[in-house]
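Before the break, one more example. Copy the sequence into your notebook; we will annotate it together after we see the structure.
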Amino acid sequence: MPWPSRKRDKGAVADKKEPDAKIAKTEEETSDKEEEEEKSTKPPAGGSKSGWKNWKKTKESDSGGEESKITYCHWLLKSEPESRLEKGVDVKFSIDDLKVQPNQTTFWEGVRNYQARNFLRAMKLGQQAFFYHSNCKEPGVVGIVKVVKEAYPDHTQFDPKDPHYDSSSRKENPKWSMVDVQFVRMTKRFIPLSEIKTHYQAHKANGGPLKNMMLFTRQRLSVQPLTQEEFDFVLSLEEEKPH
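Here is what the structure looks like once it is written out:
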């Protein structure tokens, strides 16, 4: 019996710590027209080997002095650690729930936003992602998972009893995809959204690896890409004492 669908995109809200977030369009408003537009946003696979400390040097070394094309090779996956009913089903799923799964592995289902779906489809075997507790009293990064199976059809779209059932999707041409992820480790400490936001604001003002981080530019996406520099910088925070 699979776990109930818990990785929410449609109608997602910004984290409770971000009540002032200004979003031009909620995922609930995503249309078929946007689906075509989002196809072009699929990020390239692969990754930069430069760490966040070499971020400025890497940018300056590009021909003509222009920034290089952004390459995403890591991810951030939001899931809700606190109970919340959606169409009568509890969508709670914390990293502790993942750890007790067989082989500490689960399918990442229930994504109903075209851009987030395209990000799922762009994931490559072995790539790592932050497991992020969302829509809770204290949102933030709690651990690391890795992709152990690349995108394939999300079975919940065909289940009328599932809160993420999509009557418009056909088995011969499924709209929605999912991947399998496996627990890697807990971060050495909880890295709260508030702390990451402080660095984001500094980097946005003065330049730095987090200046374009989607966690703040597209808060409502439950599946988000990270550059190597973004991933390295956030991970480096686990070594620092919490403020």
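Confidence is low (pLDDT under 50) at residues 1-5, 17-33, 36-40, 44-68. The CA atoms of residues 22 and 115 lie 18 Å apart. Try to locate both features in your own notes.
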